[in-house]
Amino acid sequence: MSGVPVSKRVLRTTVAAAAAGAVAFAPMAPLAQEAGVPVDPISIRIGANAEFTRIEFAGVIGARSRVRREGRDVIVRIGSTAAPDVSRLKVDPPKGVDKVETRAVQGATELVLTLAEGADFRSGSADGAVYLNLFASAPDAPAPPAAPAQTVAVVARSTPAKVSMTFQWDRPVGAAVFRRGSAVWVVFDTPARLDMSGARQLGPVSDAHWTAGPDHVAVRIAAPEGLAVSAVAQGSNWTVVIGGQPVAVEGVAVDRDDTGEPVLVARMAGATRAVWLTDPLAGDRFAAVTALAPGKGFADRRRTVDLALLPTAQGMAVETTSADLGIQAEGDRVIFSRPNGLILSPPSAALDAAADESGAPRKAKFPALILAEWADVGHAGFSARYRQLQDAAAREAMAAGDDPRAPAEARFALARFLVGSGLGYEAVGVLNTIVARAPNMVGEPELRGLRGAARASIGRMEEAEGDFAASAVAGDPASAMWRGYIASTQGDWAAARQAFAAGAVAADAFPAVWRARFGAAHALAALETGDLPSARALLAYSFSQDAPAADQLTAHLVQARLLELDGQSDRALAVYTAVSRAPLDAVSVPAKLGVVRLSLAKGKMKAGDAATELEALRWRWRGDATELAVIRQLGQLYLSQGLYREALTALKGAGPGLNRLEGAADIQADLGAAFRMLFLEGGADGLQPVQALGLFYDFRELTPIGADGDEMVRRLARRLVDVDLLDQAAELLKYQVENRLEGVAKAQVATDLATVYLMDRQPEPALQAIWGSRTTILPNALNAERRALEARALTQLGRYDHALEVLGGDASPEGRDVRAEIFWKQQKWIEAAALYDARLGQRHADPAPLTAEEEARLLRAGIGYSLGRDGAALNRLSRNYRPFIAGARAKSALSVALDDDGVAPGDFAGLAASADTFAGWVTAMKSDLRTKTDGNRAAAPARPQAAAAAPARPAA
Fold it and tell me: Lowest-pLDDT range, 78-92, 322-336, 610-624, 934-948?
């Protein structure tokens, strides 16, 4: 992808790989010779006594650890990607810890210690180590009534030259003491009332006024600017001295965060709280950060664009004009930040000056800009040039050791040479080594720009995105060009055009090969967004560059797409065909896709041949928009042939790894549309029910949420019922009832489920389905249907009286059928016969042959009248229905049942079998289900040719 000829690239890559090891390992060799045993960058020590358990993180990196808390988890962040040995902690967690885990984060490792129930911790640093003290927290006690704030006596001792003010607290509190203009501020992190009666004589100080808040109390003391200020703690008392000799302060160090994030971190042991105050005279807002004893202060004055740190005698003081400045006190660290990061100088500004290496690749104007001169190897050739730069970088790295302020120019020069020479893998290795030695360099704009460019050049687009998303290169036009290039490879055309426009000022400063690539990628983005004139102009720009053949082929691929949109399909096909012969899959795969698409449209290729070609292309090029285009074209082709399983399998082949791409949403839409067509619009009606069921189960995760998904399941269940696959139908409906539906919809599907159970002679599950879906408001028709099913299930269980109670006065046809069934089973012949006779009504007036269900009713009516000795009713029934015997299914049974002499006891068993109404009820229920799910329509034919998928998006 870099455009360097293959054989030459292989040679360069091999030479560079052999030499790159020296950069990484040369500085370590002397250390290995001097030390008898290897030294771990971090060691973990554990100790315990009766009151608490102590865990220390020591070593070179352990001393720079960070500690934070998230719920019960205590997270220790270690600035190293090499995980420490925590086997002892995992196997035998110390008291107060439930479990210990490690996890990798960008540029670091985090230890997650989950505290046991009732455990708490404190963190701090001592003797070059960060420690955690784990102890049992006090049990929660009932909250006492709010007590008034305590009164703190203030005692002053003064002379004409100075005054000391002692604040007599009854317990240790955090304090901040500092001068701001003509006033000295004393701030405590605990609310209180100050008794100033003992501080009336203030010597050189004119007056003192105090104010209190819900979490602090502060004193403003008017004092001439020439007077020194100091603070000291004795027990729980704080004494502030104004005047006299100046006292040196120390204990607070401020620097950038080791992670490279645009924040400032102050190391101040015992930091407790940030208190925001308003100056009553100036009216501006500032903050004090309090800390516990012993005394510690910030002796310097430091100013950035966002804030100013004032000199203090105790704690810290911060001035800012930013309303969103955040100050977070975390044990021994105070973090200053803003939502979009502080505006700080690059980390390289703090490095010591580097010796000038004559002839080394110079720094570019923009952080992510590649200069053509970087690849210049001079008269000695590539190997000699590489060894020269590599040796200089190794010497610099060896001299730097672990000093984060050591110069890094020689290593950056080597990285520039590698990036300019198209050796992206090697350049990434050199830059990662710089970050490993000095983690704060991750915020250096040039490092982000060079590493992002190297990653993009070798196809690591997601990693490159991370570099170019950093705030350090947010305003860099060269980085904007790379963001446009990455967006184009991912099919995000609108973002690509926006980024290319933002980086236009840097475009012509890149080497010719990258101008050609950016031009082709920008042309493709313009083409996909409908701006064809801009696409033509950008293609002309790309062709005008002296680019390698591979990059010219990429531009020709975009040209073919442009011809296709212009309606010149013959010329487009010719260009696609020519490019498809290239030995580079990056351009030949999208070109062959274009050949298949246009050949299908022109009738020059059969569908089967096209499918074979597309199946081969699926595995030749993976991971970008081209793969998505191939998959989509293949899925649409299979759908047009009625190969539904193959279509769904192909479309589903766009796995989660491609979800980041813009076209992934189109694939998911195609999957959903295909599944909907199959199971909602009747596309699967031509399949055997078992095939349709298997297809549904294999892709059931595509079932849409809501009414459409529920309707799909009901339609499929109806087809299964049609072929008596009752268990499978019940399983589908049961899942819907138990997991997806509520209210009326749940009651409707549960009614169908109960019907299926009763068809399968399973009355108990049928009752559970009915009873488990009861709700207060249901349509009358649905209530009547559910009542009849409940009574039928109770009848199958032999609970006749209960069934009659459920029916009550139900006079619906379904209710009368169930009541007749109950009377029949109770051998109440006259009552049963009367109900069957009534259900026939005036059917004898219609000469059409009787249905199976009507024959069963007629048989039971005749048998009932005969066994009930109702001759008159039997004679009437015989007179009305004897003409139907000739065309009946059970002629002999009807003849005997309608015989005026009645039914002989020997004939009863045979007639009862012929008069089984259950089979008729099952047939009626199947017909009802078909009506509910629109199942009476004809099976759908093979689908017509689907709309063509979007054309291939060539890799730019």
Answer: 934-948
